[in-house]
Design goal:
Layout lengths: L5 E6 L10 E11 L37 E7 L2 E9 L1 E6 L4 E5 L3 E5 L4 E6 L9 E11 L10 E5 L6 E5 L5 E8 L1 E2 L2 E2 L17 E7 L4 E4 L7 E8 L2 E4 L2 E4 L2 E5 L5 E5 L4 E8 L7 E3 L2 E3 L2 H14 L20 E3 L5 E3 L1
Antiparallel strand pairs: 1-20, 2-9, 3-8, 4-7, 4-9, 5-6, 5-8, 6-25, 7-10, 11-12, 12-15, 13-14, 15-22, 16-21, 17-20, 17-22, 18-19, 18-21, 23-24, 25-26
């Protein structure tokens, strides 16, 4: 490596490795077929390990779903999920009484806080054509003082998310969707109220970059204490700081210097995650993220005792009506429609 702008290069696995304040990132991409009357796949599911189907077969996985693909009711506590849906739809139900449907560019920012049950089902609403799905789910930690926040979520609707476009001297374009943070003088939409990303001094950045062949883009200098990671997940190769990076690699970068990224000869897609570290101990067991092992035990006891408010829906894998459209109904009764 030519100098210390690049601190590490690592091939991506599953899930993607992240750094404080992030906990984990997963990238789901499934070629779902046309849907049936139940909004599940209109094909045979024979030969699948239903309930634990994480192996791609015929282009898709059912995950924990048995009729509709996705993740039926499950608990979380002590962190946030940021779900970025590039294509397809997600149905949300939770133990606060909230529900919704979002997708095709929308982002859900969910604070699990002191604990909630929720679902992420992938309804196959189209019966006359395929239902492809692509999304990222990013786990963002909460500071200890915010791990007792009431569970809630905020919708960042696709139409409202800032999009930045730039072109180099060769006319080749770079497009950035700014999910969190500040870039080129633009601010993202506000995150959830209890989030580590709420304070601009924490420099939390989440953005998606699409680069034309031979396009160039400069990551700005931010902070010497920043954790900055670039995830090159689709394309062929990119070039930065004298290094050629092949697709499906994570690049850990220094945070206090400008870094120019130049694309190769194929369209490139990149996710950037950056932020000041929370710097607190992390104790994680499955869906619970606390600061100590004792707090993990308390979290399990709390879940067994209260079920985080209990499940208010008839099914563990509920879906909205096929014609529901994109909407969010919050636990306090607020309704957003798109």
């Amino acid at each position: 490596m030519s100098n210390n702008k690049i601190l590490k290069i690592q091939k991506l696995g599953f899930p993607w490795e992240t750094e404080d304040p992030f906990l984990m990132t997963v990238h789901h991409k499934d070629a779902y077929p046309a849907g049936n009357e139940q909004q599940g796949p209109a094909v045979s599911l024979e030969g699948r390990n239903l309930g634990e189907d994480f192996t791609i077969k015929d282009g898709f996985r059912m995950y924990h779903g048995t009729t509709v693909p996705g993740f039926p009711a499950h608990p979380h506590k002590g962190f946030e999920t940021v779900t970025i849906v590039l294509e397809g739809l997600v149905d949300h139900f939770d133990s606060t009484g909230a529900k919704g449907r979002y997708g095709n560019g929308d982002v859900q920012w969910l604070t699990t806080g002191k604990g909630c049950l929720h679902t992420e089902m992938f309804p196959l609403v189209h019966q006359d054509k395929d239902n492809p799905l692509e999304l990222f789910q990013i786990w963002l930690n909460l500071a200890s003082m915010d791990k007792k926040a009431d569970p809630d979520y905020k919708m960042l609707w696709a139409e409202d998310i800032p999009v930045l476009e730039s072109a180099g001297s060769n006319g080749k374009k770079t497009t950035v969707r700014l999910i969190a943070g500040q870039l080129q003088g633009k601010n993202s939409l506000d995150p959830a109220a209890a989030s580590w990303a709420k304070d601009p001094d924490h420099h939390v950045g989440i953005y998606l970059i699409r680069m034309d062949p031979e396009a160039a883009f400069t990551l700005p200098a931010v902070s010497g204490t920043l954790n900055r990671n670039l995830y090159f997940y689709e394309g062929e190769e990119i070039h930065l700081d004298g290094e050629t990076i092949s697709v499906y690699h994570r690049v850990k970068l220094i945070g206090d210097q400008e870094i120019e990224v130049t694309n190769g000869t194929k369209e490139a897609y990149i996710l950037v995650l950056e932020g000041e570290p929370i710097g607190e101990p992390v104790a994680q067991y499955g869906p619970f993220v606390m600061n100590t092992e004792e707090e993990i035990r308390e979290a399990f006891n709390d879940y067994r005792r209260t079920q985080f408010g209990g499940w208010k829906w008839e099914r563990q894998d509920p879906v909205n009506e096929r014609s529901a459209g994109r909407f969010a109904q919050h636990g306090d009764g607020r309704v957003e429609k798109r």
